[in-house]
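Please check this protein record:
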Amino acid sequence: MEEPKIIFENDDVLVIDKPIGLAAHGEGADPAGTVVEWFLRRVPAARGVGEPRVGKDGKEIERSGIVHRLDRDTSGVMILVKTQASFDHLKGEFLERRVKKEYRALVYGAMKERWGTINRSIGRSTKDWKLRSADRGARGHLREAVTEWECLQIGQYQELAFSYVKLRPKTGRMHQLRVHLKAIGRPIVGDQLYAGNQLGTGDDLGLKRLALHAFSLTIALPSGEDKSFETPLPPELSGAIELLG
């Protein structure tokens, strides 16, 4: 499996470009094939840094260094912490919503406007409790979720419309971007969980992955320095955008 690429490193943090197919951490005690496993091989002194969390099986999840996460199928910028003091600082930055995140995605269909804001609370899907939903009737505890979007390009492939969009989540809910875009009828290309009957439309622009990339992250480091980290689009996503003309 492809390993993360290091973008930046100091005594407090390690910033990576996470490849697709690599989970942030394992659900149980075994972190095999995860960002955490790779991170602890590189920074063994960081073991135990963070907040303990117990999985459904009652075992503690190995989450050393994790202060935020990307879905297994999402590529891009992710920051890991080496010390407990760094974790406490960055956790505060995320909780206070001072971290600026920008994603890029390809979606099915043509966005109707140039930009907009999706302000829809997220709960559990009525069809599958494991999935999230921003649709009316979502179950469980509804959590505020806000996503700003901008349409960068609209094009056609196999006589079908697709849009290339910039996404700025203002909150950090699980599957937020995927769920919000589904809720406005523009699910992300290749989304096995949320695209429904649109999955496979236009051959998914030839992609064999979720068309979602964490493009940049701007954050105040524990040193007090504001830093922006950016990762280029993976070649397969750049190629899919070129298909749109």
Q: What stands out?
A: Residues 1-96 form a domain with the Pseudouridine synthase fold (CATH 3.30.2350.10).
